[in-house]
Design brief:
This protein is mostly helical. The chain has one helix spanning about 30-40. Helix content is about 15%, strand content about 0%. The longest helix is centred in the middle third of the chain and has 9 residues, at about 30-40. The model has no long low-confidence stretch (mean pLDDT about 80).
Length: about 55
């Protein structure tokens, strides 16, 4: 699902890679927990990019 926020920029985790996006920071054993740990300081709204989505 792509957003259409017309030029808005949101905080995102550091270390984003081309094509893979933010998937490298995710732990397969606990994906939600690792996402919250990684993005906890970004605020209530943040952007993640996983495989160009």
């Amino acid at each position: 699902m792509r957003n259409d926020w017309s030029g808005q920029s949101f905080p995102r985790p550091a270390g984003r890679k081309p094509f893979l996006g933010d998937v490298l920071g995710t732990d397969r054993a606990g994906p939600l927990q690792s996402t919250m740990r990684c993005c906890g300081g970004l605020g209530p709204i943040f952007e993640m990019n996983i495989f160009a989505q």
